[in-house]
Amino acid sequence: MIFNEARRSKRYIALLPVSIEAVDLDGSHQAGPWSGRIIDISKHGASLFLTRVMDGQYHICFSVQENSDHLIKIEVFQSAQVDITDSDDNSVTSMKAVTDGDKNPIILKARPVWMDSYDYNDLVAFKMGVEFLEKPSRSEMSALKEAMKRQMSSFG
Questions:
Q1: Domain tally, the chain
Q2: How many CB atoms lie within 10 A of CB 28?
Q3: CB contact at 8 A, 60 and 32
Q4: Counting CB atoms within 10 angstroms of each CB, which of 41, 97, 111, 149 has the fewest?
């Protein structure tokens, strides 16, 4: 599904498993990783769904926004399932992408733009908008679209 608002480019509904970490400009690990999903994507940015945003005192959105030397590294798994761990009270405690190893992840670098939190029956989740530092290449966008088709078809 494609939808357009007042945006620079078309957005695609995605539901792709990702691993996210904060890195510095040289690529050195700063915090994370966090597991989540890209829920929509364009050539300029994406919306991410996360169940956690903290690693100790480091906040994936606000700490990166406050430090111009940090950015978000997003690994998009082209062929993966999400393993969701529930607690005794049926709240989601963690999500992690489990890949079958047949394709290399696509690496995207981004800066956070906004974040919203959602609280529903003791389930807290977060949606974060990011802007890519470089547009995904044509081959990366093609691979992402193929992964989106596979992921959407797995939902029936």
A1: 1
A2: 9
A3: yes
A4: 149
78-84, Cβ contacts within 8 angstroms, sequence gap of 24 or more: 78/103, 78/104, 78/105, 78/106, 78/143, 78/144, 78/146, 78/147, 79/103, 79/147, 79/150, 80/17, 81/17, 81/154, 82/17, 82/35, 82/37
Measured CA to CA, the distance from residue 21 to residue 110 in angstroms comes to 11
Assign 22 to helix, strand or coil: strand
Nearest C-alpha neighbor of 37 from the set 90, 91, 96: 96
Q: How many alpha carbons lie under 13 Å from residue 46 in its C-beta half-sphere?
A: 31
Considering only CA atoms, which of 60, 41, 48, 74 is closest in space to residue 127? 48
The two structure tokens encoding residue 149: 């088709």
Write out the residue range of the structural domain in which residue 39 sits. Answer: 2-153
Instruction: Report the CATH number at residue 74.
Output: 2.40.10.220
Backbone angle region of 30, left / alpha / beta, with phi > 0 → left and psi within -120 to 50 → alpha:
alpha
Query: How far is the C-alpha of 35 from the C-alpha of 128, rounded, in Å?
Result: 13
pTM over 0.85: no
